Amino acid sequence: MSELRPFHLAFPVRDVQEARRFYGEVLGCPEGRSADTWVDFDLFGHQIVAHYKPSLSDSVGTSVHHNPVDGHDVPVPHFGIILTMDDWKMLRDRLFNTEIEFTIEPYIRFEGEVGEQATMFFLDPSGNALEFKAFNDLSQLFAK
């Protein structure tokens, strides 16, 4: 397999300044290029771009569906990143000190099974669902 390359994801937000505060200050993502209607962020080495969508405020939270996984209702769609366990714990602890309302509280999913992972879910201010996860053993990422 070739070297892992950063991914790029563009997603809608209802307010660029609100996205700057959330992704920049709460999640600690450095800001890249921007304009009045969009802003780039460095999400642990990956490029995400928040694009202003004026009509989004009318539909926040209405397009999220759920899929049952390990006894929880996982929001779909969602995006996020796989962190090291230490980075996941640091982010979890930072988020516990904010006013983040978790959709799924941080916990160990599939504990003692193939694919065991730490995970947590929450929404950004525009209603986009995010998942941050970590594996003690990254070889379990695609294990069956």
Automatic annotation (TrEMBL):
PROSITE patterns assigned to the protein according to its UniProt record, in alphabetical order: VOC
Limits of the VOC domain: 5-135
Superkingdom of source: Bacteria
InterPro entries: Glyas_Bleomycin-R_OHBP_Dase, Glyas_Fos-R_dOase_dom, VOC_core
Classification via Gene3D superfamilies: 2,3-Dihydroxybiphenyl 1,2-Dioxygenase, domain 1 (3.10.180.10)
Pfam family, one: Glyoxalase
PANTHER family recorded: PTHR39434, VOC DOMAIN-CONTAINING PROTEIN
Name the record gives this protein: Glyoxalase-like domain protein
Classification of source organism: Bacteria, Pseudomonadati, Planctomycetota, Planctomycetia, Pirellulales
